[in-house]
Amino acid sequence: MATTKWAIDPTHSEIGFKVKHMMFSNVSGKFGTFTAEATTEDDNFENAQFDFSADVDSVNTGNTDRDNHLKTVDFFGTEEHGKITFKSTSFKKNSDEDYTLIGDLTIKGTTKPVTLAVEFGGIAKDPWGNTKAGFSATGKLNRKDFGLTWNAALETGGVLVSEEVKLVIDVQFVKQ
Predict the structure, then answer these.
(1) Which terminus of the chain is less hemmed in, N or C, by CB atoms within 10 Å?
(2) pTM of the predicted model as reported, rounded to 2 decimal places
(3) What Pfam families does the database record attribute to this sequence (predicted)?
(4) Average pLDDT score over residue span 94-98
(5) What are the residues whose beta carbons fall under 8 Å from the beta carbon of 163, sequence distance 6 or more?
(6) In this structure, what DSSP letter does residue 44 have?
(7) Hey, how many other C-beta atoms are within 10 angstroms of the C-beta on 31?
(8) Residue ranges of domains in the chain
């Protein structure tokens, strides 16, 4: 059976996350350096395989002090665990645009299954003749499941950083 390889277009893709700060506002961040590829049966993305890797040192929340803290052993521990990886185990079509992506996510040396809701934007040729496919994915995880346990108690009760992390992913793939 013929397969088609797709490579991520990093200039038109964003791998982001949101986490509640002080229990009432969101802080957003993203990874600036990442790679991903998809393997499909022809142009049909049903049952596609996805592989992803992000350079944890490229984390950017718009605040250098916070980014540097995220790189320490309190959170990602980039010296020992420089990459976040994802390998899909299932990509199922629910409707023409809605899919469910399940895979193994590895953060800080811990691998756990995660489920993402994926919206397939479609396939089109760009003005230079490249065939592209677009996806938006969302999901959530508990950061403590991956050993990211640092926190601080607030005087008013609650904690500084939520355990729940929302994933917000928008990607374009280029047919190879």
Answers:
(1) N
(2) 0.88
(3) YceI (PF04264)
(4) 91
(5) 142, 143, 144
(6) E
(7) 18
(8) 4-175
- 74 contact partners, CB below 8 Å, separation of at least 6: 150
Cβ neighbours around 60 below 10 Å, total: 16
Q: Choose between 20 and 138: higher pLDDT.
A: 138
pLDDT score at 160: 62
Q: Which CATH number fits domain 4-175: 1.20.200.10, 2.40.128.110, 3.40.50.1110, 3.30.470.20?
A: 2.40.128.110
- CA 118/CA 91 separation, integer angstroms: 9
* Sign of the alpha-carbon torsion through 175, 95, 30, 73: negative
Q: Tell me the average pLDDT of the chain.
A: 90
Amino acid identity of 47? N
Three-state SS letters, 45-104: EEEEEEEEEEEHHHEECCCHHHHHHHCCCCCCCCCCCCEEEEEEEEEEECCCCEEEEEEE
Summarize pLDDT for 43-61 with one digit per residue, the tens: 678 889 999 999 999 999 9
Q: What does the DSSP 8-state code read for residue 153?
A: B
| Residue corresponding to tokens 């590895």 | 106
% of the chain exceeding 70 in pLDDT: 90
- Calculate the CA dihedral of residues 37, 86, 168, 5 and round it to 10 degrees: 10
